[in-house]
Structures are given as structure tokens and as C-alpha cells.
Amino acid sequence: MLLDTVTAKIRMPLGCALLGPSKSAVGGVKAVAEEQREVLPETLLAELPKDVWHKCRNCEAMVYKKDFEQNLKVCPKCGYHERIGAWERLWITVDEGSFVEWDADLQPADPLNFPEYADKVRRDQERTGLKDAALTGKARIEGMPVAIGITDFNFMGGSMGSVVGEKIARLMERAMDEKLPVFIIIGSGGGARMQEGILSLMQMGKTSAVCGRLHEARLPYIALLTDSMAGVHASFGSLADIILAEPGALVGFTGPRVIELSLKIKVPIEHRQAEFQFEHGHIDMIVQRKQVRPVVAKLLRFWYGG
After folding, report:
1. How far apart are CA 173 and CA 162, in angstroms?
2. Fold of 86-304
3. Please, what is the average pLDDT of the chain?
4. Which of 1, 47, 171, 302 has the fewest Cβ atoms within 10 Å of its own Cβ atom?
5. Quick count: other Cβ atoms within 10 Å of Cβ 54?
6. Does the pLDDT value for residue 27 go beyond 50?
7. Would you give the DSSP letter of residue 79?
8. Contact between residue 267 and residue 230 where contact means Cβ atoms under 8 Å apart
9. What is the pLDDT of residues 120-163, one digit of tens each?
């Protein structure tokens, strides 16, 4: 009853104010929020569950968390695609019960005894449920068999160390053995993992070489670039037969912040987004999150005449 009472009082003003990402709309939202805070008793505000609303990082709209999650964590107001983890991405992409994980026991080492590296790995293992930043295995998408890989930005920025490179290489090698197409969802904004030094840089050559062998075997490779995709742009991230991307995803070899710090120049954010890359021929298709599964299945059926 409490939640219904509070929602009834604030739902209409918020709904009217949150029509888009403009500054005036955002200002209206804040004004309404402050007004409601004055009107509603402090006891009601204190008891309102904190997980009812989600604030969009792009337009700052307040939307029901339940609606946001049902929309696959895409803002219903501005269409912003929030980052999601590897397990959640897997759940919305493959057929239920079809996934079989490969190389689940691979874990990163600390060859350089890099300060705090082991602690950061343990922290992200607990946070993501992954051993490292890549999840690989075999699954079906609308009945079509596929070797699938997903890199997770939530695990040290999705950076590629020796384990990530090895898992991507093994994924493609096993796909060749089993004559499977490859689909990799890439959220690796971290690039090469500096804590592993030259070992992480070697993964670029290794994954690029196995991509070449996959092409020679005439097996299709589809990549989906998600926010944020950077360092692996120089290896398996840009070597797919078909490159898809989610709307607004940051795509490029180096992120804007690194460019600004190193070259002392400001790069327009539009130049790093998927839409700019699409206009200039690097990306083949911009795909809404809800359409990824049917689009990939359609491409696989086209390849195999299904």
C-alpha cells in the first residue's frame, strides 16, 4: 500500500517530465523530484524501496526498474543500452538450457607479481561469477548451433590477458574441430591487460592468427561490438566476417580519455560511437539489443541454408 500511494503521487509528474534527454527535460525531472520531496512526508520517502527506480546514465530519466529490466536494460526514454554482464548477456542470447561451457577451469596467473593484481582478480571473480573476463562455450541460437564467446567489461574492463586470449583461441580451434560458426560478443574496453606485461600483448597475435585459420576453414565468424570496445579492436575485434554493434556503443582502438591524456587533443564523442563507424564502413549493421538474437539466427540460417 505504501509503494502504491507514493507511486500514484509521483508517477504522472515524472511521466510528463521525462520525454527525452534534453537539458530542459532533465531540469524538469529534478524540479519535480524536489517538489515531491517537499510534499511527501519524510517517513514515506525513507520507507520507499530504493530498488524501484533506475536512473538512466544518458538522459537521467527515472524509469521503473522492472520495466527497465524487461526491456533488456535499454532505457525506454532515450534508447541508451546499459552495459550488462556476460552471464546476463548469455541468458538473453542463446536458447534456454543449450549452453555448455568450455575451458571453465582456466584462471589468470600473476607472472610479474604486479602490485594488487591478485586482489583485483579475486574481487572481480566474486563480483562477476567468472574466472576471467571471457566466457566461452557451445550453444544454440533459435536452434542453430554456434560456438559463442562473451567478454565482460565488469571484469577489469574486459581487458585481454593470457586467459582471455587463450579462451578465444581455443573457442575458434574447437569450432574448427566441430565445424561450428563462431559468434563473439565483445565488451573489452580495457585492451591488453598491463598487469601481465608482454604476455597480454602476445594474445593479439595469437587471436589474430587463429582468426585467419578460421577464415581458411570457411567457417563464419560474427562479432557484436558493445559498449565499450577498444583494445581488442587491433585483433579479433575487427576480423569478423560480419561486424554488428549495439546503438551508441563506444568503438575504437583507444578510448577518448586515453587520447586526451596522451595526445592532448579532444576527440568528439561522436567519432567513437558505433554509428560513426557504421557510416564509414567499419561496421556492417547497428542492431538493437532485442534484435540481436533473431538477427544472428537469420545470418546463420543464410550461411547454412536453413
Report:
1. 16
2. 2-enoyl-CoA Hydratase; Chain A, domain 1 (3.90.226)
3. 82
4. 1
5. 18
6. no
7. -
8. no
9. 999 999 999 999 999 999 999 999 999 999 999 999 988 899 99
